[in-house]
Amino acid sequence: MGFLSGIRVIELSQHGPGSRASRILADYGASVIKIERPSHRRAGQIQTASSAYGGNRGIQRLRLDLQQTDGQALLLRLAVTADVIIEAFRPGVADRLGIGHQAVREVNPRVVYCAITGFGQHGPRSDWVGHDLNYAAVTGLLAHTQARGDGGPPVLGATIGDGAGGGMHAVIAILSALHARHRTGTGTFLDVAAADGVLWLMSVMLDQHLDGGLDVGPVRLLTGNYACYNTYRCRDDKWLSVAALEQRFWRNLCDAIDLPDLILDHEDESRQGAVIAELQDRFITRDRDDWVALLAPHDTCVAPVLSIDEVAVDPHVQARGAVRFGATTSMLAGSDRDESAPPIDLIAALDLSPERIAQLAAKGVIEGVIG
Fold this sequence. Notes:
7-stranded mixed sheet; 16 helices; single chain; Rossmann fold; 2 domains; alpha/beta; 371 residues
């Protein structure tokens, strides 16, 4: 039985941080009902791959037309027994539909209502549309990630804003609110902005900037301008990551690759170009996995740069149980990989006669339960 067994979540987002959040909650045992748009409302919508978000593993889906009054009424019926509502509409949209926090609170004052947006419910950017790259752009993450060949900021290889800035941020806030509800007996409204979450991820650098600038303090080592924190091409055109920030790990690395003269150059800014070149000349002499076998067991802070193809069959990933039987599983500590919450009888929960359900289906209000 998962830690969140007995918690019921209704998710109104289609993809992105809302779906990341509900995926995590489901993996910890919560019962998640994902409300999707009916077929006639799906034109122009991003078609999420069936495998995304764990393929909706253990999540029930119900298609409701929330632009119709009857669809809104059905959602409020379900909300009566919900512990958590997650929505990802633009600010004000849920209220205009009659399913915002105040409307839900009137039928269920204990609900934790989590509104996830890109930039928050207020502020100069609150009405902007955006995606992951935009949230990384406005928080300093792109500007302070090693530039691409033409000097411009890179496109990141992971959806940091969706996964951590929005999804994990939302889960932390939701769990805190549920804990507080044990004390107060009432729910709350959570204004979760993905950009705020990414800004928090940048807080070490922002704190350093506010406390004397980025040219001092340890964060300068994280820029890609230092040999001890960099990536290097190997003989087989694969890459090795080196993150020997501490002096003892740097010493171990220099000794292991027979370059002891570089030990004292660890943080010498004037020497970094030459040191990076010396390490590159050394690493190009062997294949990546040969270097990993030689260096990783000896406290050198090296690891292979793996492609997704390699990650999928990586022995460590397999040993941790993150990929099994050709699909991802729950990857977070304490989550239940083998058992999902038992399904809810959603039709019974709506408390409507078969005749009324048939009428609503004919009007396109409800399409039925999936999963």
